[in-house]
Amino acid sequence: MVLLLLLLLLLLLLLLLIQLLLLQLLLLLLLLLLLLLSTTTTTTTTSSTTTTTTTTTTTNSTTTTTNYYYYYYYLLLLLLLLLLLLLLLLLLLLLLLLLLLLLLLLLLLLLLLLLLLLLLLLLLLLLLLLLLLLLLLLLLLLQLLLLLQLLLLLLQLLLLIYYY
User: Fold this and answer.
1) Residues 128-146: pLDDT tens digits?
2) Number of domains observed in the structure of the chain
3) pLDDT band at residue 114, thresholds of 50, 70 and 90?
4) Which range marks the domain in which residue 120 is found?
């Protein structure tokens, strides 16, 4: 039982280490995604307005440099999502292992309590047996005293018969 508890504790520690490594990988991928987003997309917008007394002319010009890394973004986002799901599954597995460990500890505690109760019962039975033996010894001593008294009475009777 204790060996099973130790094995579960080792498994729990291993899963915690795996979860920490996955969290680090997740943070690294998030940083990579932020780096890609910050370096590849630039948008500049210029607008100018010229006004005279009779006509108004408005000119808007937008230049955008587009990136061709959308597939990488989607791939990174998908990878991040998969890592999050894996972390969630690991967390659920850790919770289940903790519950199992808690149940095993409670079972072990219950067994120890039962063993303690049995030992207490055995001690109580031994005390009762000791009391019975003491009572028996007392009864034997009383019988011995009665026999001695009877013997003394017989002796007195013999002496009485002998002298009369």
Assistant:
1) 999 999 999 999 999 999 9
2) 1
3) very high
4) 2-163
